[in-house]
Write a structure and sequence with these properties.
Blueprint (H helix, E strand, L loop, with lengths): L1 E3 L5 E4 L5 H16 L8 E4 L5 H8 L3 E4 L2 H11 L7 H15 L11 H34 L1 H6 L6 H9 L3 H5 L3 H10 L5 H13 L7 H37 L4 H5 L6 H11 L9 H8 L4 E5 L2 E5 L6 H17 L1 H12 L4 H22 L5 H13 L1
Parallel strand pairs: 3-4
Antiparallel strand pairs: 1-2, 5-6
Helix pairs in contact: 3-4, 5-11, 5-13, 7-9, 7-11, 9-10, 11-13, 13-15, 14-17, 15-16, 15-17, 16-17, 16-18
Length: about 400
């Protein structure tokens, strides 16, 4: 870390230890630099917006700014073009940034502990879902190489019935020996419908002729597949458990009712939106500021007479994923959202562009509801656009 005065003069620098000892050392260095001036304002730049250090700095009364690492990298290029990088250099960049550009940086949000708890469980829940997808793809690739009949037999490889049957019979020869009773039992346990028809279809696919591998290679693949199945089984269990925690924490938050009133948002998706936006009432000065943070609003590049509007590619991936999912779901439950989307498509916008514009509109509606403390109303939300169309 580096301590710098208002004129850019370095007052102190040090490598701080972790934990309470590091925080005590920081307070001591700041106290030495401030001297007897009790009114001095201390600005701190840090490349994260969460964690015990951030919370301790805010609690101590410092003005803390969460600096995006990309911002810091661009600022570093202003101070030197050599490309050199070090911890001491990074500390100097952060100190100089908050000294000269604090008015353009985003202060760390003052989210409530309830919102922080929602963020912790929702991010872990989503991460486990992403991990399940990765392991399912690995399972799919392995089966394609030695057991293509399994891909034809099972539509959802991460489903309980598919994992149960593959664990019982991980080789083509063992799968061909599965009886209708065994297949039906797995389908019933997974609460599938039309069990008899599906069991017959699965058995037929497993007994059909397919290209294979030598016996020793098949055995090696089977061992790998069983390991992947074990991981997927645990992931399924933990995802289900964490979903209950997500719903419990989100349901206890004061803003849950307003968020759930929005079209396309349920317990899990609403929790993700709350977690990534936070609940600091002063964080977003306007609907535009919230849209910019969400990454749904376009960016404009203008030079001379040329002006273009482009999608934002630097954004919170978790938030934009949740908002686009909401927009897609809103198409079937909100007539206003559907009409807005159709108008964008009529203007030659592609599906993704129209969906992003709808998400941008829904973020503005959510902002208004949260600011005024009112529930979503279909007529009020889309009245302005309806009037424009009528005109």
């Amino acid at each position: 870390m580096e301590v710098m005065d208002g004129n850019g003069r370095r007052l102190a620098n040090a490598r701080l230890p972790e934990g309470a000892a590091g925080m005590a050392r920081l307070h001591a260095l700041v106290g030495e630099a401030a001297g007897d001036d009790d009114e001095v304002e201390v600005l701190i730049g840090i490349e994260t917006d969460r964690g015990p250090w951030v919370r301790a700095l805010v609690a101590a009364g410092y003005a803390v700014f969460a600096v995006n690492p990309l911002q810091a990298a661009r600022f570093r290029d202003r101070l030197g073009v050599s490309g050199a990088k070090s911890d001491a250099g990074d500390a100097h960049v952060l100190a100089d940034m908050v000294r000269t550009h604090a008015h353009e940086l985003r202060p760390v949000a003052g989210d409530s502990p309830q919102a922080e708890a929602v963020k912790v469980v929702t991010r872990t829940h989503k991460t486990l879902i992403w991990e399940r997808t990765r392991h399912t793809q690995r399972l799919r690739h392995a089966l394609r190489d030695y057991f293509p009949a399994a891909l034809a037999a099972f539509g959802d490889l991460d489903a309980t019935d598919a994992l149960t049957l593959l664990a019982k019979a991980p080789t083509p020869r063992a799968a061909a020996r599965l009886t209708l009773a065994q297949i039906s039992a797995a389908l019933k346990k997974a609460r599938r419908r039309n069990v008899q028809d599906k069991a017959s279809a699965i058995q037929a696919e497993l007994r059909a002729e397919h290209l294979g591998q030598p016996e020793i290679v098949t055995a090696a693949y089977a061992s790998s597949v069983q390991a992947l199945i074990a991981v997927l089984t645990v992931l399924n269990e933990q995802i289900k458990t964490l979903q209950g925690q997500v719903e419990a924490h989100f349901g206890a938050h004061p803003a849950a009712e307003i968020i759930l009133s929005q079209p396309g948002l349920g317990q899990v998706l609403g929790a993700r939106v709350l977690a990534e936006f936070g609940d600091d009432p002063d964080r977003y000065a306007s609907a535009k500021a919230r849209r910019n943070y969400a990454g749904t609003s376009p960016i404009t590049r203008a030079s001379g007479k040329k002006k273009t509007a482009l999608a934002r590619f630097i954004h919170n991936d978790r938030l934009i994923d949740a908002l686009l999912t909401q927009a897609y779901a809103a198409l079937t439950c909100s007539p206003g959202a559907r009409a807005y989307y159709d108008r964008q498509r009529a203007r030659s916008s592609g599906h993704n562009a129209a969906l992003r514009q709808l998400a941008n509109r829904l973020v503005g509606i959510l902002h208004g509801c949260l600011k005024t403390g009112t529930l979503y109303d279909e007529t009020t939300a889309w009245s302005h656009h309806a009037e424009n169309v009528a005109a």
